[in-house]
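Hi R.,

Here's the chain you asked about this morning:
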Amino acid sequence: MIKEAHFNEGFRKELADVVGPDRVLTSEVDRLAYANDVFWIPNLWIDRKKEPPKADYIVQPGSVEEIQGILALANRDKVPVVPWGGGSGSQGGVIPLYGGIMMDLKRLNKIIDIDETSYTVTVETGINNTLLEKALNERGLTFPHYPASANCGSIGGFIAHRGSGTLSTKYGKMEDFVLSVEAILPSGKLIQTMPIPKHASGPGLHELFVGCEGTFAIVTKATLQIYKLPEERRFSSYLFPTLEAGLEAGRRMMAEGVGISACRLYDPGSTKTKVGDVLGIKVDNDDASYMVIGLDGHSEMIDVQEKLINKIVEGLDGKNMGREGGNRWWEQRYHFYYPPYEFRLPWMYGTMDTVCLYKDMARLYRAKKEALETNFKQHGIRYIAHFSHWYKWGVMVYDRFIIEEPPTDPYEAIKLHNEIWNMSVRISLENGGVINEHHGVGLKLSRFVKDAFNKDTFEFLKDLKNVTDPNGILNPGKMGMAPDAPSQRGLMELWTG
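And the predicted structure, written out as tokens:
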């Protein structure tokens, strides 16, 4: 098993021999810059001038061979390796709990092939999502994966945690785009999955690496499904008298196969705050829920789809608010997640998204809202949500808590933060939900993995980890599989509740 790493000049020189001296960073400022993603706890920790876990070496490989060379050194000396994409994750998935090597993969950023006949693109996984989309748009093509982190996240990062974007209702999540991958096991072995995901030649091995969060392998290349840019994208907005009416409208649209590309339903709290603040749309009814529907494709088809949607909305006493609000949402869809509209320190906040069957969602939402607002009322907690990724069988809730004046003491604040998360995730699991829908597990939710599976299933996951990574070097401490780290044990017990 790994040992906790510490800086060693001889080891640094060996890394430099693999990638070049300019590609091994060891300054304090670089190590601090790579010590965190956007997980609230380590951000608070650094804000309160506490020392976070830091990697000893930031290494920037530019090829498969260089990655293999780094892994060979890491295995020899049992040094931890944490893959880094864009650093935009929210779950602490890149926190270097045991020091060692932070492997920044952004130099692997090439577009290898665009197949305009089969509508696929093959890329190195360090490429930025927005830059890939720009290159495809120049050819009249699109990779319709539009998450809020598109401008800063990498394709590899989205693959690692099964990310999702605003058009997922039509085009799917990241795992639906991935046709095949190239991945490097911790041993250095190069794995290439079948060129297509649909076959009868044994199990779909690419699924082992999609969502593994860098614990089983480092994904270096992927072939992805792409599409023609649509003739038209059309957005409309609606207002429902209750959240339940909006949920039922979305369910009917999916069940009847209307073919919507985006559906964003805001609960009353978000309708009054986020919709009001970002879009400038004020709603007087305190129980009302605001919905945006997106359609794309040929204009004639969209006309028919729009008529079907309006019929469903009218049947549930919804009100058509026109296209202006919908278009404004599309143009400003990322504004919800950045200053001045996004929550920020010193506030305490968290996104607790989950997904479940339609029959369970209203109950899950109400149970969580009531529990958090009752049990943490003394802290002035607010609970808001929107529903943004819809399936034939169910829907995802992107629910959030906000406390504007949390405890000033970092230990008390972290304890409160973890109590909220513990209650929230357990309510999700008790009501048919899962740990998380698309943000991944990381460090934040690692403690819940064993509760999400039965004992034998969790043991099977650990067996897979042990087979692919016998020395435990790759992103240790994540996905519920954590070796000991004596000097960090107290800090990790505090952070992970």
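The first strand starts at residue 24 and ends at 25.

Let me know if you need anything else.
M.
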